[in-house]
Automatic annotation (TrEMBL):
It comes from the Bacteria. Residues 269-356, 384-486 form the PDZ domain. PANTHER family: PERIPLASMIC SERINE ENDOPROTEASE DEGP-LIKE-RELATED, SERINE PROTEASE FAMILY S1C HTRA-RELATED. This is Probable periplasmic serine endoprotease DegP-like. GO terms for molecular function: serine-type endopeptidase activity. It holds the Pfam family Trypsin_2. The keyword Protease applies. GO terms for biological process: proteolysis. It comes from Sphingopyxis macrogoltabida (Sphingomonas macrogoltabidus). Residues 1-19 form the signal peptide. It catalyses: Acts on substrates that are at least partially unfolded. The cleavage site P1 residue is normally between a pair of hydrophobic residues, such as Val-|-Val.
Length: 498
């Protein structure tokens, strides 16, 4: 290393001599890598001789996470009992995490403690400290959109670490990753920040990452990325590699993006994000040519949800949104990112181009629906789906426990995808338990519940109330009106679990 630096210094001196000969000797602009200028910004202590003292202090706060999950692979018919039984298999997984309090709160990635075909929460989480003590952990909360989760173990006096102000992170800063890659146990790697605010083109509120060349592999997920002050500047999340292992292109969730989510989960609150209710597409080269607009400036409105914030503001299909709340919409600063990070209820201007003419509309930002509801825009009735382990509300819990069904409001987009009239009102079944009366009677994903006990239902709350009222009246069944593609609606009496 000294040899390389020595050669570099000699080259720099030679380059400087050449510059003095060929450029004006008075008031000349110097090269960015002029030796005297570099000495000002890189003192001898800039690169530590060793990370050992730093690691010794931080390593006890980093934990190993292992998980177990019972996954339903399908169903089989029991010929003796005449019933359908689920086929299950135990899957194991895990990753890394870190303690943020002395009483056992642990931050990790949501995908570390998720399993099954629909990302359900795992059945069992075990946390192992560097002193080899093991604890059963409970899942305090998890957020799919940010890929963050908060765990809790029953212990006190634990070592913990604090978050950094990641907005001050700079390209070239030293960083250290501690985690449990490839099942090897606690492992330390070091590198630099390669980029900040990196957009990977995924859209949404959290498509901004710290990129680092610090070695990160499978099992590092959820572990901390430290700055040289020992603070967590990011949460290791993913890597890009053609071979599935580290090649120096790795990404961490910035601390500043994670802190509000973690605080909300710790307080038992739902994370709220802004939402306009539109489907969008980038203004690529072909679209720009067709519209006579600059490339990569703004986003094209493909779809406007009925009754949503965008529809109320007057936004139409075919509009191009160029600015949101004064911020340019670009591939690096997408419309989804700007809106999702705007507080619901905020009134914002939307600068658009309609039929070649600029216009300004004003919208009141709505609240982004749960991710599973948004997935309904691409609802596939043939896709296998199991009941969620953590229903999104009390009504959904009531319906799932009593009827063995997961339901969601029927939108015009879902209606079209399942082949029913787009004006149909009701609840679409997302999943039906094979062990429920509803499942045994043939109810399945994609069926629409039009009414319950002859009362129209369009929300989970409405169906849950009818189920509760039936129980209070001493009835052990409800009459559901079911609509299925290609046929008229039919009434089916479904038993209610007590």
């Amino acid at each position: 290393m000294r040899y390389v630096y020595g050669i570099t210094s000699a080259l720099l001196v030679g380059g400087t001599a050449l510059a003095l000969v060929t450029q004006s000797p008075v008031g000349a602009q110097v090269a960015q890598n002029e030796k005297s200028e570099i000495a000002k910004v890189v003192p001898r202590s800039g690169a530590p001789e060793s990370f050992a003292d730093l690691v010794e202090q931080l390593q006890p706060a980093v934990v190993n996470i292992s998980t177990k999950q019972e996954v339903t692979l399908g169903v089989r018919l029991n010929p003796f009992a005449g019933t359908r039984e689920p086929i299950t298999q135990e899957q194991q997984g895990g990753g890394s995490g870190f303690l943020i309090s002395a009483d056992g709160y642990i931050v990790t990635n949501n995908h570390v403690i998720s399993g099954g075909p629909r990302g359900e929460a795992v059945n069992q989480v075990t946390v192992t400290l560097t002193n080899q003590k093991e604890y059963k952990a409970t899942i305090v909360g998890r957020d799919v959109a940010s890929d963050l989760a908060l765990l809790k173990i029953d212990a006190t006096g634990l070592p913990f670490v604090k978050f950094a102000d990641s907005s001050t992170a700079r390209v070239g800063d030293w960083v250290v990753a501690i985690g449990n890659p490839l099942g090897l146990g606690s492992t330390v790697t070091a590198g630099i920040i390669s980029a900040v605010q990196r957009n990977l083109g995924q859209g949404g509120a959290y498509d901004r990452y710290i990129q680092t060349d610090t070695a990160i592999n499978r099992g590092n997920s959820g572990g901390p990325l430290f700055d040289l002050q020992g603070n967590v500047v990011g949460i290791n999340n993913m890597l890009i590699s053609p071979v599935g292992a580290n090649i120096g292109v790795n990404f961490a969730i910035p601390a500043d993006a994670a802190i509000p989510v973690i605080n909300a989960l710790r307080a038992g609150e739902k994370v709220e994000r802004g939402y306009l209710g539109i489907g969008i597409a980038p203004v690529d080269e072909d679209l720009a040519a067709a519209l006579g607009l600059p490339k990569d400036r703004g986003e094209f409105v493909q779809r406007v949800e009925d009754g949503g914030a965008a529809a109320k503001a007057g936004l139409k299909r075919g509009d191009v949104v160029t600015k949101v709340n004064g911020k340019d919409v670009t591939p690096q600063q997408t419309l989804s990112y700007i809106v999702a990070n705007t507080k619901p209820g905020t009134r914002i201007p939307l600068e658009i181009v309609r039929d070649g003419k600029p216009m300004t509309l004003n919208a009141v930002v709505g609240t982004r629906p749960p991710e599973e509801q948004l997935a309904g825009t691409n609802f596939d009735p043939e896709e296998e789906q199991t009941l969620p382990d953590d229903p999104s509300g009390a009504a959904d819990t009531t319906i799932q426990e009593a009827l063995g069904l997961a339901v969601q409001p029927l939108t015009s987009d879902i209606a079209r995808s399942i082949g029913v009239d787009a004006t149909t009102k009701g609840l679409v079944i997302g999943a039906a338990s094979a062990n429920s009366d509803a499942g045994r009677k043939g109810l399945r994903r994609g069926d629409v519940i039009l009414s319950a006990n002859r009362t129209p239902v369009t929300t989970s709350d409405a169906l849950a109330k009818i189920v509760s009222d039936a129980k209070k009246a001493g009835r052990d069944a409800v009459l559901l009106e079911i609509l299925r593609r290609g046929g008229p609606s039919a009434f089916i009496a479904v038993r209610v679990k007590p």
